[in-house]
Specification:
Blueprint: H1 5-16, E1 27-35, H2 39-46, E2 53-56, H3 63-72, E3 77-83, H4 102-115, E4 121-126, H5 134-145, E5 151-154, H6 163-169, E6 174-176, E7 179-180, H7 187-204, E8 206-211, H8 215-224, E9 234-235, H9 238-248, H10 251-258, H11 268-271
Parallel strand pairs: 1-2, 1-8, 1-9, 2-3, 3-4, 4-5, 5-6, 7-8
């Protein structure tokens, strides 16, 4: 693909921007969501350079085999857990909804976890409705807390989410998303979101992006992930982000800062209940 001038300029900033003094050795993590439905694109996501985490929708045609492939490639594997959104978009198999009883909720959640071989963690697919409800989030985190190796990433599809706070209350290692990479599926837009990710990491020390297996996203990430260190940040697993955040800032302070964080000025896709489904 021939890069346009605006894209070339945007990508150049990734390399030329000097590291900020606000954070020493800033780190970023990248999660690719919505895997499991498209084998060709999903394998391209797994092949991305570096420790890019792979989040698989449960009970999808290729999830189990590709999750094993991702493990073999040294990637973190997440259950991309379908949670009800405010506009009630179709969740697909394994979705958790507000009307469920606790028994139904927990049974479905356990089946979802079992559908993904040896998950390292969980993040939410959609969820702008159910992540606002402490009771349902408590049921979720109670199950996750029974597997000490699991962490939770709040995809933050609504500014009203309580998922991170409830996770910490239940002793579940947790963090949150700062940037969606590809709500606009254009190379220059993805590149701008990468710049935003870098800027947040340099300011705060850590930052997490979520993208999707769109051809444009995979193309830009394949080109740009190897250049992150030249831009002043390092790509790390999600678990390292959680460890750094837990070490350098008290959980209460982190939670209090989320509501006013610039990343909470969400775009339309997030407020509608999550990013688009995998094509």
């Amino acid at each position: 693909m021939r890069l346009t001038f605006p894209l070339c300029a945007a990508l150049a900033l990734l390399v030329l921007a000097p590291p900020a003094a606000a954070a020493n050795n800033p780190v970023v993590a990248v999660i690719i969501d919505d895997l499991g439905n498209n084998r060709v694109l999903d394998e391209r996501a797994i092949a991305l350079p570096g420790p890019v985490a792979c989040a698989f929708l449960p009970h999808t045609p290729y999830a189990a085999n590709l999750a094993r492939q991702a493990h073999e490639a040294g990637k973190e594997v997440l259950l991309h857990l379908p949670l009800e959104a405010v506009h009630h978009e179709k969740l697909g198999p394994g979705g958790l909804t507000l009307p469920m009883t606790r028994r139904e909720f927990v049974s479905t959640l356990r089946a979802d976890l079992a559908a993904i071989p040896a998950p390292d963690g969980v993040n939410n697919h959609m969820g702008s409705l159910i992540t606002q409800h402490p009771g349902d989030m408590g049921w979720l985190m109670d199950v996750l807390s029974q597997s000490p190796s699991l962490f939770y990433v709040d995809s933050r599809t609504t500014a009203r989410t309580v998922a991170y706070e409830i996770a910490r209350e239940h002793g579940v290692p947790a963090t949150w998303r700062d940037v969606f990479l590809d709500d606009v599926q254009k190379p220059e837009a993805v590149a701008r979101q990468l710049q935003r990710l870098i800027a947040i990491a340099k300011r705060r020390g850590t930052a997490i992006a979520i993208g999707h297996p769109y051809p444009v996203t995979l193309r830009v990430l394949k080109e740009q992930l190897p250049r992150l260190e030249a831009a002043g940040v390092r790509l790390v697993p999600v678990r390292e982000i959680i460890a750094r955040q837990s070490k350098h800032a008290p959980p209460a302070k982190i939670a209090a800062g989320l509501a006013s964080h610039p990343a909470q000025q969400q775009d339309n896709a997030a407020n509608a209940g999550g990013a688009r489904a995998n094509p």
